[in-house]
Specification:
- Helix content is 19%, strand content 40%.
- The chain is built from twelve helices and 60 strands.
- Strands 2-8-7-6-5 form a five-stranded mixed sheet, with no helix packed on it. The chain has a four-stranded antiparallel sheet with strand order 1-33-32-31, with no helix packed on it. A four-stranded antiparallel sheet has the order 9-12-13-14, with no helix packed on it.
- The chain starts with a strand and ends with a helix.
């Protein structure tokens, strides 16, 4: 990926426009201080020659919007946000302009100055609207930060310091402000009593900052000639090597995936993790300001030599299996099949904004339409019109794909049919990214944009909330979510990484029980699910780790450590990111931007395939062939999950779990299906479900006995009293338990019932024998009835 740049000083068509009776030629004669986009194809630029120019990229026309007064030297320009939470505003278009005379100007799109206010002593170095347009902040040479209403009324002075504030940026929630203080960065909440975060960020004065609303990352550049990426807690994620000159401009792309950095005769395009896609050396002088168009495809720069720099992103690449796709021009893509070197060229009517390649389909969005290509046929795409035309994210699953378009989320089938549009009141859909939204064939998971502990779960087919409609709430902030891609919807799992870098797994559908959440990893940086089996890979504490069967925690959590494969990941360098896990190949992006591929054993994928289609003999055969304890452990967990006791017995024996083999044999000898099912649930630790199954089948003694075995004495007595049976059995076992440990009874309830109930072991044994006989008789009758119905 790189930026294709062009410098415009003398436009192709010069228009003569008369404003305030002044005849102006449309070219800047002095340094350009700031630029701002009004639309994807129109830009305003301000210069020390006191002119504001309007640049139309469709017609290559340029016109003088207004000639400012001689004492106004512009420094910063920022347009009033056109969208709030993705929805277009009905407010008149206006921009804030700051200048060296200490004034803040509110200027209309036609160039008329609606209001000018004395804002600071000395120059006003920065002015920024917050994300919903309800407030404007200015930073001055006098060291003050002031907040203004959208009509230009002073609301408050947020901060005051002894050094100039060169740059300022709003937090994604507009509740905090980031600003520079010499070599330090300061994050100050608007709430007066809240804690201020401050840290030394550079070895020289910090000149520019930006804070992405989508990924919540902070960007800074300074006189130490470095640019750095920080998280919102002030932790350093990336620091560049020193450049030749100070960093004078930084800007996040709207989707938070890229950023641009400017210096003297230097423009660099970088990934959000910091590594560089491309380095351009245009003859610009210093780049004082950079601005991205709303669709994220174009960049404009204000140059110290009077030029306006225009650049657009080209040579983006997407890869999937044997296909490599490159954006060669703004409206052209090239598809290459690396197996036979066949090349197809895809042409589009409008500029390509977003694209995604996965699951055998290429999805491309332009400003007006969405194109869906099948990897089997690149000649005839399916085309449909977009509702908003401002797509910021594409997420694909096997059966359908998801578009974040404006303030809405839409799920489409690959045939172009709108499947659903999940909604959650108050959530900003326009700032969702790949870490905060996940899609599977039946489920959509979205992390809340206001409370990051909350994860909303929706049915993909209907867009309605799953179950009782309540979201999943984690104990601390969640930074990453991912749904597994295979298997039935009732077994759908979601993996999440929280702020402490702990990895958790939980069920999407509760099925009548509370959310069981299990911690399956710690110090985890990045994870990805396999596309064809529910296998999870990740980077855990500098180890490349593969969880061959992570859902084993819901069956037998003791098996989890035995189903994990780990190897040293030192060749992947520090802080790598997993890009994809397709088939047996994991693609990892290193911190320097290079891609590294690592292979995973094919046997676990085959094992998942065999067990999913009930080919248990094949599963046993592959484990015997591989002679791998990890594989046997996976088979044991998979067999118990599918209640295939014979296979589970063999697998547990192979890994030396003799106690579990004995328990499985005990389950197999039970007379009825209900008691078998209950003990399988008990095997997995689901005591309440096991009890409910037995009570529903009227197997009261069995329900009491499992609590006696687990020493849940109070519950065992409660069931016996409630159903008026086997009270003496509970009392006898309790008495024997206390005698074995040489203790006296202290429980009031047991003392109360001991006085009125006689304990006779012979009678108790006879009752137990009678219970088993009844159960065997009932099981025999039910099997006879079922065989008769089959004959009929």
């Amino acid at each position: 990926m790189r930026l294709k740049t062009s410098l415009l000083k003398e436009p192709k068509h010069i228009l003569y426009c008369i404003h305030s009776h002044i005849l102006c030629i449309c070219a800047h004669r002095e340094l350009v201080s700031c630029v701002g986009w009004t639309s994807a194809d129109e830009l305003y630029s301000c210069s020390d020659d006191h002119q504001i120019l309007r640049w139309n990229l469709l017609t290559n026309d340029t016109s003088v919007l207004v000639k400012l007064q001689d004492e106004i030297y512009p420094i910063d320009l920022h347009w009033f946000p056109k969208t709030v939470s993705g929805k277009k505003q009905a407010v008149a278009e206006i921009f804030a302009l700051t200048s060296t005379d200490g004034k803040l100007h509110l200027v209309s799109k036609s160039g008329r100055i609606e209001k000018s206010v004395e804002a600071h002593r000395g120059a006003v170095l920065a002015g920024r609207w917050n994300h919903d347009g309800t407030a404007l902040i200015t930073a001055g040479e006098d060291g003050q930060l002031k907040i203004w209403s959208k009509s230009g009324m002073l609301r408050s002075t947020l901060a005051q310091q002894g050094t100039p504030v060169y740059s300022v940026a709003w937090a994604p929630d507009s509740g905090r402000v980031l600003y520079t203080s010499g070599r330090q960065l300061v994050v100050k909440p608007l709430q007066p009593s809240s804690k201020v975060l401050q840290w030394k960020a550079h070895d020289g004065v910090i000149l520019k900052v930006d804070w992405s609303a989508v990924n919540d990352l902070i960007l800074s550049g300074g006189e130490d000639c470095k640019y750095k990426v920080w998280d919102s807690y002030g932790r350093l994620l990336f620091s560049s090597s020193p450049h030749d000159y100070p960093i004078t401009a930084v800007a996040w792309a709207p989707d938070g995936e890229l950023f641009a950095m400017g210096s003297f005769h230097t423009l660099r395009l970088c990934d959000k993790t910091g590594w560089s896609y491309s380095l351009e050396k245009p003859s610009t002088g210093s780049l004082f300001s950079l601005a991205w168009s709303a669709d994220g495809t174009q960049l404009a720069g204000a140059c110290g030599n009077g030029h306006v720099l225009f650049a657009h992103v080209v040579e983006q690449r997407w890869e999937w299996r044997n296909f490599e796709i490159t954006l060669t021009k703004r409206r052209t893509m090239q598809v290459r099949n690396v197996l036979n070197d066949a090349v197809d060229v895809l042409e589009f009517r409008d500029r390509v904004i977003k694209a995604s390649l996965a699951h055998g389909h290429l999805v491309v969005t332009t400003s007006l339409q969405c194109y869906v290509y099948s990897a089997k046929n690149w000649n005839t795409p399916l085309i449909f019109d977009l509702k908003e035309g401002t797509v910021s994210l594409i997420v694909q699953a096997e059966r359908h794909f998801l578009l974040v378009d404006g303030a809405e989320v839409y799920v489409y089938s690959y045939e172009g049919r709108l499947v659903s549009s999940p909604k959650s009141p108050g959530m900003r859909m326009d700032i969702l990214n790949t870490q905060s939204i996940s899609l599977s064939n039946d489920t959509i998971a979205i992390r809340d944009t206001t409370d990051e502990r909350v994860v909303f779960l929706f049915e993909a087919q209907t867009g309605k909330a799953i179950g009782d409609g309540k979201p999943f709430i984690h104990k601390i902030e969640v930074v990453f979510i991912a749904l597994d891609q295979c298997g039935p919807s009732n077994d759908r799992r979601i993996a999440l990484i929280d702020k402490n870098r702990d990895l958790y797994l939980t069920s999407v559908r509760k099925l009548g029980r509370a959310h069981s959440i299990y911690k399956i990893g710690s110090m985890v940086d990045t994870v990805a699910w396999n596309d064809s089996a529910n296998i999870l890979c990740g980077i855990q504490d500098n180890q490349f780790t593969v969880w061959y069967y992570p859902s084993v925690v819901f069956v037998d959590k003791d098996l989890l450590p035995k189903t994990i494969f780990s190897k040293d990941s030192s060749e992947l360098s520090r802080s790598p990111q997993i890009v994809s896990y397709v088939g047996t190949q994991v693609t990892v992006r290193r911190v320097d931007g290079s891609l590294v591929c690592t292979a995973v054993s094919p046997y676990p994928t085959l094992l998942h395939e065999y067990t999913g289609s009930a080919r248990w003999e094949d599963g046993l055969r592959i484990c015997r062939f591989a002679k791998d304890q990890t594989l046997w452990s996976c088979l044991a967990g998979l067999a118990m999950a599918h209640r295939e006791l014979s296979t589970a017995e063999v697998a547990y024996a192979a890994i030396g779990e003799i106690d579990k083999v004995q328990y499985i044999n005990f389950i197999k000898d039970l007379p009825s299906k209900d008691s078998c099912l209950a003990h399988i649930l008990l095997f997995s630790g689901h005591v309440q479900e096991a009890e409910a199954t037995l009570l529903q089948a009227n197997l009261i003694y069995h329900a009491i006995q499992i609590h006696i075995n687990l020493y849940n004495w109070d519950r065992a007595l409660e069931l016996a009293v409630k159903h008026k049976t086997h009270v003496d059995t509970v009392l006898a076992h309790r008495r024997k338990f206390l005698q074995d440990f040489g203790k006296q009874e202290t429980n009031k309830r047991f003392l109360q019932y001991s006085e009125g109930v006689e304990v006779d072991w012979e009678k108790i044994q006879a009752k137990i024998e009678m219970e088993f006989a009844k159960e065997r008789e009932r099981a025999a009758n039910s099997s006879v009835r079922s065989s008769v119905s089959v004959r009929r």
